[in-house]
Design goal:
Order of helices and strands: EEEHEEHEHHHEHEHEE
Oligomer: single chain
Number of domains: 2
Strand content: 25-35%
Helix content: 25-40%
Largest sheet: 6 strands, mixed
CATH superfamily of the largest domain: P-loop containing nucleotide triphosphate hydrolases
Bound molecules: adenosine-5'-diphosphate
CATH topology of the largest domain: Rossmann fold
Number of helices: 7
Shape: globular
Strand order of the largest sheet: 6-7-8-3-9-10
Structural class: alpha/beta
CATH architecture of the largest domain: 3-Layer(aba) Sandwich
Distance between the termini: 14 Å
CATH class of the largest domain: Alpha Beta
Length: 223
């Protein structure tokens, strides 16, 4: 699903990623870990085409991203559901309208959109809260709305950047269980996190970044 071949990323003189190689197979779930500044967000941005590599190749869903035309970028991004630490919900929109936003942008009609939003809310256990504003929800529930919004377009790949950063251990476990459920129905999942306690309890491979280089013990993810 994702392949990095000898990827380097420099911001001015700063090396953010150095000779990065890894392969996340279709349908796999993995963690991306490393200290602050190790290059995790940069790696996710390259997958989203929010940044371009200085050299090397990024391949997503069999597509070499350097070959994509500007007009193909929105379709590429629709394959990917993004989950953030601070969920970035619109606080004056209802839960329903927050989740419906990506569908509105994609031009869905109201009936199809309603059906999909409710299916997404059902998957994260928030169907009965669709009319509420995010501020009356708990932080775990707000994060679940963020996840519903990420999966409402039925993406092939979920990318999450510190999705449990603001949550206590019990809620973090619950959120990870949700990602595992999506993974079990075939969605590929890559989660950037430095919650080592949580990662070590789960049976998924770990890509470890250290100052822009993949390090640590040999991982099944490395080529
Ligand atoms: P992480 O997500 O692991 O904290 P980042 O990918 O955000 O790491 O950052 C990797 C390195 O690249 C850091 O040294 C950071 O300061 C630098 N960096 C990230 N984005 C930029 C940018 N837009 N301009 C300059 N340097 C950047």
């Amino acid at each position: 699903m994702i392949r990095f071949e000898q990827v380097n990323k420099k911001y001015h003189d700063k090396n953010a990623l150095v000779n990065t190689n890894f392969h996340l197979r279709r349908g796999d779930m993995a963690f991306l870990t490393g200290h602050s500044g190790a290059g995790k967000s940069t790696l996710l941005k390259l997958i989203m085409l929010m940044e371009r590599p200085s050299s090397g190749k990024v391949i997503v869903d069999r597509q070499d991203l350097s070959q994509l035309k500007r007009t193909q970028v929105p379709a590429h991004r629709r394959k990917i559901g993004l989950v953030f630490q601070n969920h970035q919900l619109l606080m004056d929109y209802s839960v329903f309208d927050n989740v419906a936003l990506p569908l509105k942008i994609s031009g869905y009609n109201e009936r199809d959109s309603g059906r999909r939003v409710r299916a997404a809310l059902d998957k994260v256990g928030l169907l009965e809260k669709e009319r509420l504003l995010p501020q009356v929800l708990s932080s775990g529930e707000q994060q679940r709305v963020g996840i519903a919004r990420a999966i409402v377009n039925k993406p092939k790949l979920i990318l999450a950047d510190e999705p449990t950063g603001n949550l206590d251990p019990a809620l973090s476990t619950e959120i990870m269980r949700l990602f595992q459920q999506f993974n079990q129905v075939g969605v590929s999942v890559l989660i950037a996190s430095h919650d080592l306690g949580l990662i070590q309890r789960l049976p998924h491979p770990v890509i470890q970044l250290d100052q822009g280089r993949i390090s640590g013990p040999p991982s099944v993810m490395r080529q």
